[in-house]
Specification:
There is one protein chain. It is built from 15 helices and 11 strands. The strands form 3 sheets. A 5-stranded mixed sheet has the order 3-2-5-11-6. It has a 4-stranded mixed sheet with strand order 8-10-7-9. A two-stranded antiparallel ribbon has the order 1-4. The chain is elongated. The chain is 30% helix and 14% strand. Strand 2, helix 6 and strand 3 form a beta-alpha-beta unit.
């Protein structure tokens, strides 16, 4: 035998292991591992419950993806707002300061549906309570590709199953568990919100009126359009909605005899502006919200500003407010919000109340929600 062969044979790493103590398998350990594998294999995987929103309320939301049902289920306070309203600064302050105690759900609703959201109970449908719905959901889930993970939001914000009829939601003046407790609305679109006998109302801010027009329109040479310049322009809205325009354009409208389209949304009306049918006067936020490259807007001088209000229903006399409003944190200012007995005076002390009396209406530094002094 050569020296290289003898040295290779003597290397410990390549010598066969014949020790039975090292090669034997512990039967107890093997049995326990097999038992764990069997448990993991046989453990049923529970499919998430596909709770969904009532079709009427689903149709009320701007985009269903913006409001997952789990957010509604966890929320204590729900505030709806119409398109182009930007309440992000107030919502963010609330989430930062009170989100761990009173969870807020932001409910984006369609045009002129703010008041409707206040007079419906939150209606979540569980297919487990409806065998037909449950079977349809299960069959739909079974047809999905295997191994696809279903997130919490998509699992419970499933759209209603087609072919299943749901009872219509009965409107109530003050629902026990409302779809929205408060709503941010435009009074010019929902005039009923100014009824002081039915609603509490706080003016949040005012918006500048602008006219939407094609980019090649002659009025685009002006930085600000006087209302008199619109006297011979066709507006895609009732003249009675804009008294100043109604007065200056009366003679032209009587001679022109053009019919104003009815029942159109802001988006549909703006499409008519792009088609050259007419012009459209709206708050600036709406013009920005539905911005198009072929359209622009100019402020209109001589028109009233568009107010934006926070409203909520007045409880009938002798009837207490809901538990959700009772749970709200205190507000600042000299007293509570009307109709909400749970909103007591601000605990920061008398100095804060004195500042509140002298400050203009709006947000105070230690308060997350707008209010009236």
């Amino acid at each position: 035998m050569s020296s290289s062969a003898s040295s290779t044979a003597g290397t410990p790493e390549e010598q066969p292991v014949n020790d039975p103590a090292l090669t034997a398998i512990d039967p107890e350990q093997n049995a326990s591992e097999n038992a764990i594998d069997e448990v993991e294999t046989e453990a049923p995987t529970e499919a998430p419950t596909r709770v969904y929103l009532h079709p009427e309320q689903l149709a009320m939301i701007q985009t269903p993806e913006a409001l997952p049902v789990p957010v509604l289920q966890r929320s204590v306070l729900r505030v709806s707002y119409v398109p182009a309203i930007m309440p992000g600064k107030w919502f963010n302050r609330w989430h930062e300061r009170f989100g761990d105690r009173v969870q807020l759900a932001e409910v984006p609703v369609r045009e002129a549906r703010g008041l409707d959201s206040l007079h419906q109970d939150l209606c979540l449908i569980d297919p487990a309570d409806n065998p037909a719905a449950g079977s349809s959901v299960e069959s739909a889930a079974g047809s999905a590709e295997e191994g696809t993970a279903v997130s919490e939001a998509s699992a419970v914000s499933e759209a209603p199953v087609e072919g299943i009829e749901h009872a219509p939601i009965e409107p109530k003046h003050v629902p026990e568990n409302p779809f929205a407790h408060m709503s941010i609305v435009r009074p010019d679109r929902e005039p009923a919100s100014t009824d002081g006998e039915k609603y509490h109302s706080i003016r949040l801010y005012e918006e500048l009126p602008v006219v939407i027009l094609p980019v090649d329109h002659v009025l685009t040479v002006l930085d600000e359009v006087p209302v008199e310049e619109l006297a011979e322009e066709f507006l895609l809205q009732p003249a009675s909605d804009i008294p100043a325009y109604e007065e200056v354009s009366r003679a032209w409208r009587e001679s022109a005899g053009r019919i104003v389209p009815e029942g159109l949304t802001d988006k549909e009306t703006i499409e008519l502006v792009a088609a050259g049918v007419g012009l459209y006067i709206v708050p600036m936020s709406i013009a920005r919200f539905y911005h198009r490259k072929d359209l622009t807007y100019r402020p209109v001088a001589g028109l009233d500003l568009y107010p934006v209000h926070l409203v909520w229903p007045r409880a009938p006399k002798g009837e207490p407010r809901s538990e959700e409003l009772e749970a709200l944190p205190p507000r600042c200012g000299p007293g509570p919000l009307p109709g909400a007995p749970g909103l007591a005076a601000c605990p920061q002390g008398r100095a804060a109340q004195r500042r509140a009396r002298s400050a203009p209406a709006g947000l105070h530094r230690h308060c997350a929600w707008p209010h009236r002094n």
